[in-house]
Amino acid sequence: xxxIKELIRTEADGTLSFGNYELAEKAKRSDYEHDGxxxxxxxxxxxxxLERNGMFVYESVPGTAVxxxxxxxxxxxxxxESSRDxxxxxxxxxxxxxxxxxxSTNIGTMKTNMSGKLVLSVETGAAGRxxxxxxxx
Length: 137
What we know:
Chondroitinase Ac, Chain A, domain 3, 7-stranded antiparallel beta sheet, 6-stranded antiparallel beta sheet, 13 strands, globular
């Protein structure tokens, strides 16, 4: 996949895809409308960040390409690709507990902090792309 060339797009199934970790310099796209919300993405080799209506949704270090990002009240799921292992921060419900799955393997539970942020590390390894699912308990 190697990055979303248009920086952010809506897929046929209604999910979002965004980010391009192959860019040498920062690129951004603002005011992307999806399901009545306005999204903003900033991305390049070192970081990818997504905001919805001015609020934090997703951040990765280094940069990533995310496909099929789908968010509900009970969690979030997406596929993530990078040239290196990544640290991902998600904006979820504050002080809530979530079960984390990476490539369908339960890697445990985590609790968000007072600001609703959940931090996890994902090893992309040789596959380069992994599926992440975060489910509220």
